[in-house]
Amino acid sequence: MIEALNSLAAFDKVAGTSFAGAAPTQKALFSPAALSGIAGTTPTAPTDFGEVMAQVASSARDALRTGEATAISGIQGKATAQQVVEAVMSAEQSLQTVVAIRDKVVAAYLELSRMPI
Fold first, then answer.
1. Percentage of the chain exceeding pLDDT 90
2. pLDDT value of position 10
């Protein structure tokens, strides 16, 4: 799991974001706060599909990071079993959502590639 946390930190560097000092928070994948980008502000609708996908990926990454960090805290005895299970279940749900979206995008691409010009 430590390697996974390090790889997520590397993803932050590539994406131009840094969450190293921020405490991980659990957010629903498609909540208005997650889509607004900043919790506590009024949610604004993203203007294009790319922005929506970037925000969904960011929210999923945060959920996965939270799940792994909580699992590590549970191993260290700093988190209860209930907290660990909730965080891991949230991360699992986010991962399943991302995989389903990826499958739909690949299917759509394959469908478009089969169309005659």
1. 53
2. 47
